[in-house]
């Protein structure tokens, strides 16, 4: 059976060039970077180059910090819990602002903080799956310690007004964090322009290896060390550096930035072709305006077809990998939280399918998905007891 991968918001294949860059650090230059002997010293240039590549990709200043982590989930947890320790538990602030549609690593951590007495404001999204800057401004309180808003949504691709929120945070002297996992490698990310204090990213979202991410920290912003017991990463995160993966992340982010023009032209064109064809199917809709989404993402709702059923049919019958939402919640059969958040009817909130392309997606693959997606919809609607040719709610 042919296999076509349309789940690049969940993870991406590792680029061949990234694999080649990593190989020597497994078998030839395997020393501990903290060791003083030659084996340790010879890996320093590779780590230093990777650090420079990450700094350059997001336009970080030399006196800012970029800390390598295991993933964005770690980075997100770290920021929220550090703010809790520094400004809430041991300070006089007790409020965090976030959104209803953040990644589970943000929302679950916020639920934990609520159990510790922290007050959380969860901002709703509008019909386009984005949030209002005015809602952020209205939610700010005297005791607000942190605003944490994703840069681009993992399910819809909706791009949030991070720069405008950053201006609000700066005016009110509030720490500002953005989860930029779905933005880095798809759209330009400039921490100076955005005005963020903290930014999370993960290599496996832009054709790097799994198990490595990074956390940007603006100069002068305090953060409680995640691990204690060593001097690595300036004492912020103790533990032997994962040299091969750090090198891989550096190479991957460099390639991703070089490929941004392709993402904005060729990948966007393929995404739009796919979207146009799928919207010709009766009783379907896509969340969000195209120019307000990342160029690779479609969240489409197909009336009368359960998302899980559609996912199974595409995979088992046609070899097409798609998703019903966040991969971190893929075993959760509850209604799609984004569709619920924008006010979709309850039955529609179970019908969402996410298709996400990459710079390696071909037009032939898109044509194949169009053909087989239509076939799946036709088959599943034919056996559905709930589908009727009534236009879905206009949202």
Please tell me what the overall shape is: globular
CATH architecture of the largest domain: 3-Layer(aba) Sandwich
How can the largest sheet be summarized?
Answer: 7 strands, mixed
Termini separation: 37 Å
Low-confidence stretches: 390-395
CATH fold-level topology of the largest domain: Aspartate Aminotransferase, domain 2
Which structural class should the secondary elements be placed in?
alpha/beta
Tally of DSSP β-strands: 12
Figure out the total of helices. Answer: 14
How are the strands of the biggest sheet laid out side by side?
A: 2-8-7-6-5-3-4
* Cα Rg: 22 Å
Q: How helix-rich are the residues, as a percent range?
A: 25-40%
Q: What is the H/E order?
A: EHHHHEHEHEHEHEHEEHHEEHEHEH
Secondary structure blueprint with pairings:
Elements lengths: L3 E2 L10 H7 L1 H4 L10 H4 L2 H15 L6 E5 L2 H18 L5 E5 L4 H12 L3 E5 L9 H7 L4 E5 L13 H10 L3 E5 L11 H4 L3 E5 L10 E5 L25 H16 L1 H20 L4 E3 L10 E6 L4 H12 L1 E2 L15 H5 L10 E5 L6 H20 L13
Parallel strand pairs: 1-11, 3-4, 3-5, 5-6, 6-7
Antiparallel strand pairs: 2-8, 7-8, 9-10, 10-12
Helix pairs in contact: 1-10, 4-10, 5-6, 11-14, 12-14
């Amino acid at each position: 059976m042919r296999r076509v991968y349309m789940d690049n918001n969940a993870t991406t294949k590792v680029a061949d060039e990234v694999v080649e860059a990593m190989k020597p650090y497994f078998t030839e230059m395997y020393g501990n970077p903290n060791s003083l002997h030659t084996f340790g010293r010879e890996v320093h240039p590779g780590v230093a180059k990777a650090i420079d590549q990450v700094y350059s990709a997001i336009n970080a200043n030399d006196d800012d910090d970029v800390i390598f982590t295991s993933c964005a989930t770690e980075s997100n947890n770290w920021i929220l819990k550090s703010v809790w320790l520094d400004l809430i538990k041991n300070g006089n602030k007790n409020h965090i602002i976030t959104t209803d549609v953040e990644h589970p690593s943000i929302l679950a951590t916020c639920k934990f903080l609520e159990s510790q007495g922290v007050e959380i404001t969860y901002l709703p999204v509008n019909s386009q799956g984005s949030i209002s800057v005015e809602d952020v401004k209205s939610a700010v309180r005297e005791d607000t310690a942190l605003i944490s808003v994703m840069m681009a949504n993992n399910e819809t691709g909706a791009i949030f007004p991070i720069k405008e929120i950053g201006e609000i945070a700066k005016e009110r002297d509030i720490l500002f964090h953005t989860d930029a996992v779905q933005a880095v490698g798809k759209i330009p990310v400039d921490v100076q322009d955005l005005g963020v204090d903290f930014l999370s990213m993960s290599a496996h979202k832009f054709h790097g290896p799994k198990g490595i991410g990074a956390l940007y920290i603006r100069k002068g912003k305090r953060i409680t060390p995640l691990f204690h017991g060593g001097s690595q990463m300036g004492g912020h995160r103790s533990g032997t550096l994962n040299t091969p993966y750090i090198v891989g992340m550096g190479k991957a982010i460099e390639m991703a930035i070089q490929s941004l023009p392709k993402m904005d032209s060729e990948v966007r064109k393929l995404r739009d072709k796919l979207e146009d064809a799928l919207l010709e199917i009766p009783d379907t809709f896509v969340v969000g305006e195209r120019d307000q989404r990342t160029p690779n993402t479609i969240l489409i709702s197909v009336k009368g077809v359960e998302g899980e059923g559609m996912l199974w049919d595409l995979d088992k019958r046609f070899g097409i990998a798609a998703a019903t939402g966040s991969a971190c919640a893929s075993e959760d059969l509850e209604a799609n939280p984004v569709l619920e958040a924008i006010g979709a009817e309850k039955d529609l909130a179970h019908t969402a399918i996410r298709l996400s392309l990459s710079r390696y997606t071909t037009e032939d693959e898109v044509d194949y998905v169009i053909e087989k997606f239509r076939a799946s919809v036709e088959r599943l609607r034919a056996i559905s007891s709930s589908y009727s040719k009534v236009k879905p709610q206009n949202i």
